[in-house]
Amino acid sequence: MKLAKFLTTTAAAALLASAVEAANIKIGASLPITGGLSVSGEKHKRGYELCTKLINDAGGILGRQVELVVSDNRSDPATAINQYERFINVDKVDAVYGTFSSRLTFPVASILSKYNMVHPVPSGGALRIYEQGYKNLFYFQVSAAEYTGKDVMAVMKDIIASGQAPKTVAVVSADDFFANAISAGLLGQKVKDPATDKEIADLAPGYLADAGIKVVMQEKWPEEGFNDWLNLANSIKRSGAEMIVGLTASAEEAVQLTRALKTVGATPKLVYLSQGAQNEFIEGVGKEAAEGVLIHTTWHKDVPFEGTLAGKPFNNADFVKAFEAAYGVEPDEDSAIPFAVCQGIEQAITGANSTDNAKMGEWLHARTKDNPVRTVLGRFSWDERGLAKDKEHIMTQWQDGQLKFVYPKGEFEGVVPFSYPKAGF
Amino acid sequence: MADILQILILGLALGGVIALMGSGLSLVFGVMRIVNLAHPSLIIGGAYVTYWAFKMTGVDPIVMLPVASLIMAAIGVLLYRLMFERETKSAKYSEMTVLLTFALAMMVEGLLGGLFTNTQRVVSPDYATDAFFIGDLFIPKGQLYAGIVSLVIITALSLFLKYSRLGYAIRATTQNREAAELLGVNVNFICILAFAIGIGLAGAAGSLVSFVFSFFPAKHWEWIAMLMSVVVLGGMGSILGTVVAALLLSVIAAFVGTWIGATWSTLTFFLALFLILLVRPQGLFGEKPEMA
């Protein structure tokens, strides 16, 4: 009798647990928690986790709790693909969050498109990803990386007009999806589809040529395993370039390059890096070497972006406060961007009143400038390719050990004058 | 001419650090036939010890080197006893150690990530980004100091191996394990000692690497292929070979990086590995394996 009672109770508990699980909204994210991209991968995980926790604390989405399933893809594209397949076919997730980097996003995008999943991309700015004709791709950053140079030149507008701009430039970059994309725009190269070799865009003459800045040195380093930073920095110094463009694939490379430039005693008038807005950058290179370094970013802690979470206002300042309370450190864009992705998916499910990805995709595509997705990165609406409309990069510059924003001017308070020229390292 | 001299200086400076990174790997293989794929992850362990000591107390990484070395050596003893000791009689010992140390590398990476997060770190004493400028030339202080300390440690290790009683025993075990045992050498103790020295060298290399390169737990995957190239070219088990190979490859890579392109500089190490395995598989200073 006792045994029968025990079995009945156990079965009831199991059924109840499975019913509760079924009621949860399950969302999968494959991230590079280990491997070469782990620095950013771990921060992405924190962004997703914090957002999920805050949503659940506020009652969940459509009255259902959110269950986040994160897998470590070890920075490996094949593993990332397998994990998203598993999320969809085995874990039966209701939605997914994107992974980190163009390198991983490019192959993952085709899989998620095959299953008609909404694919919110936190990081993966290479234009070729958005030219594949995938239906439900939504990039949660500013436009494709190829067009980043436009905002760099916008910062330099005044010095170009007054004839004080650098006349020569050394462009050095990682041989990486993201860095190559920015480089293509700056140098005016053609962008081709890697599968078909079909031309996607011709970016000639390029933002540097447009601004009358002559390229005197161009160099790439391999995607992984490069250690000879001093030699590279020495070549840059010997080129005599007045401007250095360092298109690094990670903040770690930005630290290595900047430290090497300091060591060799390079004296450019301006340094622009594609990474380096992270806290580790200033810790790694020091206040003096960082001074005047210009970096593009999608997010800055002081920008008064207005977002929502669980149907209530949740602004950038709220995010910074919540992040610091949860993790004891200041966030950077590697956590803010995935947080915005999570906000976007929450709004899509609520807006579509369903976890049907087709309906969520329709709702996201229907966003407009006046009726956008509202996140800690500001407002989002997308073109048919999935690239954000009407958004510009926030151009930041290290000034006196603080990351200040110097562009866009007049859009919000706190923009400081662009400091130029750089006084050595 | 100044350009050539400058490239040579930078190549040698980098080579000095790589030599120390590879010497522990070479020693451990030479004595115990353990292909320690976890060696770079243990170097990162040493780098973290140094980083936190610098961050919390401001102690210089070079001063911290003996401490990091001792801590890692103690970890080495523990690892040997837990993972390798019972397998030494296995006929496929070397092959097994490849799998064991691969697993160990992943475990160390996970452990370091859990303890210290995956955030990149670098130690920044003043000299790390400074240089001696002599006319048109410069010598980076960080690399110079790291290179000098590396060579001092490697010289001390070579003298220890050549002239001390324990050194004799280690060399005897390297040359013929069974014969050494017959002559009264406590081979198991010698293996523990050599493994501890090898991992202690990883700790020492970690202290130096901490201000030369930035690091994070997964960084070891980028270093293992480079270190294996150096150790194989030098001759697995030969400390002198490791030093010569590290200096040679670093200098060649520096010239390739400057004259052909940075993309190709890393390839120098793999090309050398490929060629040496084709032409002289025992490496520059290794002994030719006996034919069965």
Walk me through the topology:
The complex is a heterodimer of chains A (425) and B (292).
Chain A: H1 2-23, E1 25-31, H2 38-57, E2 66-72, H3 77-89, E3 95-97, H4 102-114, E4 119-121, H5 127-130, E5 137-139, H6 148-155, H7 157-161, E6 168-174, H8 177-187, E7 190-192, E8 199-202, H9 207-210, E9 214-221, H10 229-239, E10 243-247, H11 251-264, E11 270-273, H12 279-290, E12 294-297, E13 308-309, E14 312-313, H13 316-327, H14 333-352, H15 357-365, E15 373-375, E16 378-380, E17 394-399, E18 402-407
Parallel strand pairs in A: 1-2, 1-3, 4-5, 6-9, 6-10, 10-11, 11-12
Antiparallel strand pairs in A: 7-8, 12-17, 13-14, 15-16, 17-18
Helix pairs in contact in A: 2-14, 3-4, 10-11, 11-12, 14-15
Chain B: H1 2-32, H2 39-57, H3 61-84, H4 93-116, E1 131-134, E2 137-140, H5 141-163, H6 165-175, H7 177-182, H8 187-212, H9 220-234, H10 239-259, H11 262-279
Antiparallel strand pairs in B: 1-2
Helix pairs in contact in B: 1-5, 1-8, 1-9, 1-10, 2-3, 2-4, 2-8, 2-9, 3-8, 5-6, 5-8, 6-8, 9-10, 9-11, 10-11
Taking all residues together, what is the mean pLDDT of chain A? Answer: 92
Q: What is the radius of gyration of chain B computed over CA atoms, rounded to a whole number of angstroms?
A: 19 Å
Q: Tell me the number of structural domains of chain B.
A: 1
Rg of chain A (C-alpha, Å) = 23 Å
Low-confidence stretches of chain B: none
Provide keyphrases for this structure:
heterodimer, A: 425 residues, alpha/beta, Rossmann fold, 2 domains, 7-stranded mixed beta sheet, 3-stranded parallel beta sheet, 18 strands, B: 292 residues, mainly alpha, two-stranded antiparallel ribbon, 2 strands, globular
Structure in words:
The complex is a heterodimer of chains A (425) and B (292). Chain A is built from 15 helices and 18 strands. By secondary structure, chain A is α/β, with parallel strands linked by helices. In chain A, the strands form six sheets. Chain A has a seven-stranded mixed β-sheet with strand order 9-6-10-11-12-17-18, with helices on both faces. In chain A, strands 2-1-3 form a three-stranded parallel β-sheet, with helices on both faces. In chain A, strand 10 (243-247), helix 11 and strand 11 form a beta-alpha-beta unit. In chain A, helix 3 (77-89) runs parallel beside helix 4 and helix 11 (251-264) runs parallel beside helix 12. Chain A is globular and about 85 Å long. The model of chain A has no long low-confidence stretch (mean pLDDT 92). With 292 residues, chain B is mainly α. Chain B has helices at 2-32, 39-57, 61-84, 93-116, 141-163, 165-175, 177-182, 187-212, 220-234, 239-259, 262-279; strands at 131-134, 137-140. Chain B is globular and about 60 Å long. Chain A binds chain B through residues 33-36, 38-39, 41-42, 75, 172, 175, 219-222, 224-228, 230-232, 234-235, 238, 250-252, 255-256, 259, 262-265, 280, 283-286, 289, 425, and chain B through 3, 6-7, 10-11, 13-14, 106, 109-110, 113, 117-122, 124, 128-131, 133, 138, 140, 142-143, 213-214, 216-218, 221-223, 225-226, 253-254, 257-258, 261-263, 265-267.
